[in-house]
Structures are given as structure tokens and as C-alpha cells.
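Hey all, quick one. A colleague (J.T.) asked me to put the adenosine-5'-triphosphate job into the tracker so the inputs and the C-alpha cells live in one place instead of scattered across chat threads. No bug as far as I know, just bookkeeping. Sequence used:
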Amino acid sequence: MIRIGLTGGIGSGKSTVAKIFETLGIPVYYADDAARKLMNADDALKQAILEHFGKDSYKEGLLDRKYIASIVFNDNEKLELLNSLIHPATIKDAEDWMEQQTAPYAIKEAALLFESGASENLDYIIGVYAPQHLRVQRVMKRDKLPVEEIMKRISRQIDEEMKMKLCNFVITNNEQELVIPQVIKLHEKFTSQNA
Ligand code: ATP
């Protein structure tokens, strides 16, 4: 089975593209959702978070997301520390999940695919590209966030143009080019490679 990574900056449209692959019958692992679950379900990860962020990081066995957010919000070192605990657990979980899939290929969708080192375990990476002004507009609309907060998040990710150069394939989601035909073209490529 071919293991595909799907990445792109905040608001690029990764989840939207992933949903199109799902409608074609392709299984998708959503790394952010999985990480959220693992922080409550993976005992070793829980223990590591408790060790580094203190006993107030969990309330009645569940991660206190507000408390953790208040710690990492303006502290990049703490955010990197949290990510360094979460990423290996998520990479392992995604690998286990990939092994169980029986489709011709499976997709791992993650914003920080390169930043986390997850790209090393994948056969091909698809990048979803959208110009920054559209990404900012989309996230403002979706998350009701101020532009400053979105720019801060963008600044923590690898530069979009550079990220796309690291990808094997790029889907352009600039609201001018049609996205579905681009997905179908890749789907045909990955299904025929496996035949
Ligand atoms: P994040 O990294 O923040 O989770 P993402 O890359 O997964 O973002 P999506 O959630 O797929 O991005 O898209 C961001 C928002 O933009 C969503 O509300 C989505 O509906 C919208 N969107 C995505 N693509 C388009 C498009 N081509 N036209 C209009 N809206 C779009």
C-alpha cells in the first residue's frame, strides 16, 4: 500500500481536499484530530505532558486544553516542547493505522508534516497550495480569529513556497483552478501504480 502525506499551510484547504479523497473511498488519517484524542488516551504521552506541564494540565483525566493553551500561547519554547511530545506519539499512531488499511493507498493529513519529521515515513507528499491572502481570509471566516493571530500561526510554519518545493505533487486551491479534477488525476496515478 502506498502511504501518502497531505499537507499545506493553515487555511490552504488540506481538510477540504482530504474529504474529496475520502469520497473516492480513500482512508484519511487526520493528524490534528488524532493528536487531540491521543493526549487523553495514550498513557505514556499523558505522563510526559504531566511531567513537563504539571498536574493542572489534566482535570479528571482529561487534558485541560485552556490551561495548556494559556501556557503555550505566548511561549514558543513551551509550544515546541509540547509538539516534541505529541509528534512522536502521533507518528507512531499513524503508522499503526496505515498498516491496517487495505485500500490501494492511504493518506495522512497534517499541517506540520515536514516540521514534525512525519514526512520521512511516507512514500509521497501532496501539498495543497493557496496564496496567503486567501488563507488568511478563509481562517478569519472559519475560526473568527483576528488577522494578527492568524499571522502568528503562519509565522510558526515553514514558508509556503518552500513547503510546496518539498512536496512531490501540488494541488492548487486558489479558487480559480478546479480542485476535484486535480484530485482525480492523482487518484488515478496512485491507483494505477499499485495495480
Ligand atoms: P487548517 O490547517 O487551519 O486546519 P486546512 O488547510 O485544513 O486548514 P480547510 O479547513 O480545508 O483548510 O479550509 C479552510 C477554510 O476555507 C474552510 O472553511 C473551507 O471550507 C474553506 N475553503 C477551502 N477551500 C476553499 C475554496 N476553494 N473555496 C472557498 N472556500 C474554501
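Adding what we noticed when we looked at it: The longest helix spans residues 76-100. The beta strands are 2-7, 28-30, 58-59, 62-63, 105-109, 124-129, 169-172.
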